[in-house]
Amino acid sequence: MDIKVGDIVAIKGREQRVTRRSVKYVTLAQSGTVLLEYVEQCGTVVKPITNQQLDIGDFVYVRDIPENEKNHYILEWWFAKDEYIDKIWPVTNVRDLSDVVGGGQIVTLGGSQGFHSYHLEKIDDFDIV
After folding, report:
1. SS (H, E, C) the chain
2. Counting CB atoms within 10 angstroms of each CB, which of 7, 12, 62, 110 has the fewest?
3. Per-residue pLDDT tens digits of the chain, which is 129 residues long
4. pTM of the model
């Protein structure tokens, strides 16, 4: 089973978001860090994510996420990130940290705050007035 950051997995009927993944471990929004082998044997991916193509200069809308996901966010959720919620921001950097720290696709917005791409919505037709 290919488990990625942002996927929703079900274990014993309980759905939760994958917030981090390494070679041996997965961090889940409700259960915390568990063995990857356990998730592969006892869980199923019920809502896989597909990383969208984001480039520097694109604009994205930042959707809010539940507190349990913020508590296990790989980039630590500080109050400064809350200022980005429900607003449109320019993409200033895109990195894939899947192989490094299990972070998946990390998108820097505005210049300083990094976010997982699973809760960013690309804005295709955006005009600055």
Report:
1. CCCCCCCEEEECCEEEEEEEECCCEEEECCCEEEEHHHHHHHEEEEECCCCCCCCCCCEEEECCCCHHHHHCCCCCCCHHHHCCCCCEEEEEEEEECHHHHCCCEEEEECCCEEEEHHHEEEECCCCCC
2. 12
3. 788 889 999 998 899 999 888 889 999 999 999 999 999 999 999 999 888 899 999 999 999 999 999 988 877 888 889 999 999 999 999 987 766 656 678 899 987 899 999 999 999 875 655
4. 0.83
Torsion on CA atoms 106, 102, 18, 117, rounded to nearest 10: 10
Output b/e per residue, 4-25; b: 16+ Cβ within 10 A: bbbbbbebeeeebbbbbbeeeb
Query: First vs last Cα of the chain: how many Å apart?
Result: 46
Tokens of 19: 């917030």
CA distance linking residue 52 with residue 5, whole number of Å = 13
